[in-house]
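Onboarding guide, step 5: your first structure request.
Type a short instruction followed by the sequence, for example:

Predict the 3D structure of this protein.
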Amino acid sequence: MARTIPIFHPVVALVVFLGLSVMPTRSAPRSALVGSLPGFNGTFPSEHYSGYVTVDEVAGRNLFYYFVVSERKPSKDPVVLWLNGGPGCSSFDGFVYEHGPFNFHKPKKARQLPTLSLNKYSWSKVSSILYLDSPAGVGFSYSKNKSDYTTSDIKTASDTHKFLLNWFKLYPEYLSNPFFIAGESYAGIYVPTLAREVVKGIRKGIKPTLNFKGYLVGNGVTDYKFDGNALVPFAHGMALISDQLFEEVRRECRGVYYWTDNTTESCSTKLVEVDQVLNVLNIYDILEPCYHSPGSSSANSDKNQLPTSFQKLGGNTGRPLSVRKRMFGRAWPLRAQVKPGRVPLWPELSKNGLEVPCFDDEVATVWLNNKNVRRALHVAKESLVGPWELCTGKISYYSDAGSMISIHKNLTIQGYRALIYSGDHDMCVPYTGSQAWTRSLRYKVTDKWRPWASNSQVAGYLQGYDHNLTFLTIKGSGHTVPEYKPRESLDFYSRFLAGTRI
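The system replies with structure tokens like these:
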């Protein structure tokens, strides 16, 4: 409830009458305030809030959020919604591992709580950031009607728009702040579809009116043709496949490097050869070792040593990656087979005996399933939300939004700013696809391909286009860019939000 000042003194009454503010009012729900967190000893650099927003009263569909107020100028700084992908992955992935206010330090003994320290590269240094578990069934979000766990791109965008409208009613003091939407991986679908809903709402006069300015997408799934064609050129350019194999694939597949109904047997054979060569690599960062790779000693280790969510997946069957149409936690798929239809999730993949992901989620899993942590976060009772998982198989998800390219074009032509960024060593959603589709818009180049710097060093390359569209790479980074390059990420993020030259 908003705090108001009783008017008893005539001078105070005069000031209020003149429309002047005696002191700032606050409407943030005090019941949502996070006062402390297990594992952290110290004072928060800004206020934190967490809780639920109901998006469907009848069904009891509730989305969980964690809100970190800007450490700089909360009344002026942008508010940014952050979405992780999957589909089915919690945005605590971003909070714990990427750009949240804390660094999480793994304890020496398994299953102990991590210790937390302040993250000097947190995105809350320059903005307020709103982490959202979406759709219902993901992370701590839930519905009392289990049929809600069957969902899709369009329904997710609609629900998230309802969440935003209701959230800003709870936090109206941030309504005038510039608002941006950001996300990575399968959020390459979430972000533009949500942005489209927000813009529609603004045009229709839906209240409250969001001060939407633009969006950011990192290594995002966009279009199955562009993303599907990205892997083979990426692998060749990174010296992962030979010139000979590249020429053979190009000849037999005629430049179409993903499976279609018209794929010839000779093309399929060559694509399988490519997959067999790449299968031993960490798809999220080809420079990093794989936590559980068919090419590593850990692949033959005791399965019980793996994080709980990985134990569901089983081992590698040796099937070609593209045939598997994998979803590896933070993003699916390697070949971006995101055509209209059902997107496979973890339990289904485990039935098919597919290999496990190359990342370790133990720190987040232990911390977020601790009863004291959940109490501090105001999480609903476990009978409603169940155990927290980085990526869940609870939902049944359908891809029904199609290609994002026309949505990006419509949004940018209207003047909304867009930053499409890619870690250049990610093989899950390679930068080659994002670079190709941004070029396909045929916008005039306004900032010719050039390096951009962080800490006086080349941090990557970018190309700027008309209509406020920028494509940017981060040198040496994998799929989850802020996790690999935190300083560089804060630099491009803060410059983009400020509208200054990156």
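Each response can be followed by summary notes, for example: The CA atoms of residues 63 and 465 lie 36 Å apart.
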